[in-house]
Amino acid sequence: MSLIECVPNVSEGQRAEVVERLADEIREASGVRLLDYSADPAHNRSVFTMAGSAEGLETAVLAFVARAVQLIDLRTHRGEHPRLGAVDVVPFIPLGGASMSECVALARTVGRSIAVRLNVPVYLYEEASSNQARRHLEDIRRGQFEGLPARMAQPEWAPDFGPSTPHLTAGATAVGARHALIAFNVNLATDRIDVARRVASAVRASSGGLPGVKALGLSLADRGIVQVSMNLTNYEQTPIGVVFERVVAEAAKAGVAVLESEIVGLIPEAALSGTTPTHLRLTKFSEKQILENRLADLSN
Question: Is residue 12 located within the same domain as residue 152?
Fold first, then answer.
């Protein structure tokens, strides 16, 4: 059986009962398994990881998105992480026996169904996109939920599926197909957002930093610190240890120390080659966050 991973991100990380209800949607679905989920109150965002067949994922994701649209109202949402919709992104990733073309087909089928059934505009991104000008998620998300009405009024920003105006409470959703990435956050021992933004600019690929690295500087006001929040889209080209050392070096230029780091969701075992959780100052890291360990549970 072709095995595909799906990692939907939703704009809710503060109401535990909502996060659990969304997790239950996956648990109750047939043909898929919930591998991992975590909520971040400061980001006000949760990340879910599921895996299964294309058919199982199609049904499970549609039920998941429908429940999220029902429970999340972006008009009252506040959080540090940029967001486009109640269900912000829905990426499909090929695993055992699956091809990228299968994930692209699934993303387009699911994206169309979300738009038709829930009246939520859908943008296709990464490998699923047929529009190179808006292939990258950060370009689609620019302006966030609040900027959607003005942006969608521009002909070049008509969605791939669905209405030409945002859903009143759920905004829009980006559905795509991509390779595995690592969500890696590094917390700095300062409350200076300018330092976090300067470090993020130094490490991200788009501003001349490290290949395959996307980065933002965010404030964690409740803890009185700042964070360099990153997506590592090619850990073979730029290993996580290299990214961590660059963050440490760039922060040191401002006289700031690295406090700790975290992995959000799962990480391929090979991505930790050449480093250790201790060296990366990972907090709350568990062997259960290694993707292969969770996949092994599928056969148990």
Answer: yes
Does one domain contain both 86 and 203?
no
Task: Confirm if 106 and 54 have CB atoms less than 8 A apart.
Answer: yes
The residue range of the domain holding 117 is: 4-177
- Same domain? 199 vs 252: yes
- Distance in angstroms (rounded) separating the CA atoms of residues 69 and 67: 5
Of 124, 144, 177, the one marking the end of a domain is 177
Residues ≥6 apart with Cβ < 8 Å to 221: 42
* Closest-CA residue to 8 (of 147, 114, 100, 97): 114
Please indicate, yes or no, whether residues 83 and 226 belong to a single structural domain of this protein: no
The verdict on 39 and 117 lying in the same domain is yes
Q: Encode 156-181: b = buried (16+ Cβ within 10 Å), e = exposed.
A: ebebbbbeeebbebbbbbbbbbbbbb
238-256 confidence digits (pLDDT tens): 999 999 999 999 999 999 9
CATH number of 256's domain: 3.30.70.670
pLDDT means per 10 residues in the chain (300 residues)?
Answer: 92 97 96 93 95 96 98 94 96 92 98 98 96 91 95 95 97 96 96 97 96 95 95 94 98 97 93 94 91 78
Counting the structural domains of the chain, the total is 2
| Active site members | 81
Output the pTM of the full model: 0.91
Q: How many CB atoms lie within 10 A of CB 28?
A: 11
124 and 269 both lie in a single domain: no
- Distance, in Å, from the CA atom of 143 to the CA atom of 163, rounded to the nearest integer, reads 18
β partners of residue 232: 182, 213
Q: Write out the H or E segment, with its range, that includes residue 260.
A: strand 258-264
Can you read off the two tokens belonging to residue 120?
Answer: 């939520």
